[in-house]
Automatic annotation (TrEMBL):
Sequence similarity: Belongs to the ROK (NagC/XylR) family.
Superkingdom per UniProt: Bacteria
Taxonomic placement: Bacteria, Bacillati, Actinomycetota, Actinomycetes, Micrococcales
Name assigned to this protein: Glucokinase
Gene3D superfamilies on file: 3.30.420.40
Species this chain originates from: Candidatus Rhodoluna planktonica
């Protein structure tokens, strides 16, 4: 067979690459995500342009596309994405009519979970949870070495209620991703200081002792620990895999969450915290694997 193109449409970037017939993920690229695009048409056009560009140098059998939020994978519809500002948008139809190539839609973090299970940190565990921390937050559940997703709302961990009242685009107040996502760190830091910097810069400033950065990083850790403690008490995973852009903080990320877990877990199975092995390419890789499976089954 030919190759499968994997596309990860995020809030700020479109990550892409080709899954070869030997399961190597090659020719990886980054392109900007169109902003202020509530109709989704600009995104569809950008995605189609990327597909057609790859098509010039690769024999593509299919395209895997992943997006944040609630998705109807079978119908190729973005049901709701707070990150992208979409509701009930037929993204697959819009991409396919511009490229002529069969395109398969999946949730971005479900796809990242597939990639971690096949190539990454989940391989050594029977039961694990991937928490992808980017513009927002979502989770993928692995039970007995299989992705567990009985319905499309599964894994919207970022919309679990915690202890603050920050408003969320989903319509509620106090969602986890309004405090413990990379996007929230940057927004909340800018609200305090008037300065817009990256989440990793905030981590560095927290390490150096800057008060505002330290306060937000501590709050981040407490909020994430609060959520993980609930996961540990209800599903009991052996490991929690931490992915997304903030995972580049590495040991600092594990340390700030571990501090919060120390006073929240007692008799529970304490999950091992592990940094993703696939960096920020997991969702794009998983989108290609998911599309390949569905293409071969069709």
């Amino acid at each position: 067979m030919g190759s499968i193109l994997g596309l990860d449409l995020g809030g700020t970037a479109i990550k892409s690459g080709v899954l070869s017939d030997s399961s190597q993920f090659i020719d990886t690229r980054n392109n900007p995500t169109p902003q202020n695009d509530p109709s989704g048409i600009a995104a569809a056009e950008a995605l189609a342009e990327i597909v057609l560009d790859y098509k010039e140098t690769h024999k593509l059998d299919a395209v895997g596309l992943v997006i944040p939020g609630l998705v109807d994978s079978e119908r190729g519809i973005s049901v709701f994405s707070g990150t992208l500002g979409w509701r009930n948008f037929a993204i697959v139809d819009e991409v396919e009519k511009r490229t002529g190539i069969r395109t398969y839609l999946e949730h971005d973090v479900t796809a990242a979970g597939i990639a971690e299970l096949r190539l990454g940190a989940s391989r050594e565990f029977n039961d694990s949870i991937l928490i992808q921390i980017g513009t927002g937050i979502a989770a993928a559940y692995v039970l007995n070495k299989k992705i567990f997703k009985p319905h499309s709302q599964m894994g919207e961990f970022g919309h679990a209620p915690i202890f603050n009242d920050r408003p969320c685009p989903c319509g509620l107040n106090g969602c986890l991703e309004m405090t413990a996502s990379g996007g929230a760190l940057s927004r909340n830091y800018a609200a305090l200081t008037g300065e817009k910097i990256s989440p990793l810069e905030i981590v560095e400033r927290a390490k150096s002792g800057e008060r505002q950065a330290s306060d937000l990083w501590h709050e981040f850790g407490e909020a994430m620990a609060f959520g993980i403690a609930w996961l540990a008490s209800t599903t009991g995973p052996e490991a929690v895999i931490l992915g997304g852009g903030i995972a580049k903080a590495g040991a600092e990320l594990i340390e700030v969450i571990e501090k919060g877990l120390q006073h929240r877990l007692s008799i529970h199975l304490k999950p091992k915290l592990v940094i993703s092995e696939l960096d920020d390419k997991a969702a794009a890789i998983g989108s290609a694997f998911s599309a390949k499976d569905r293409y071969l089954a069709s």
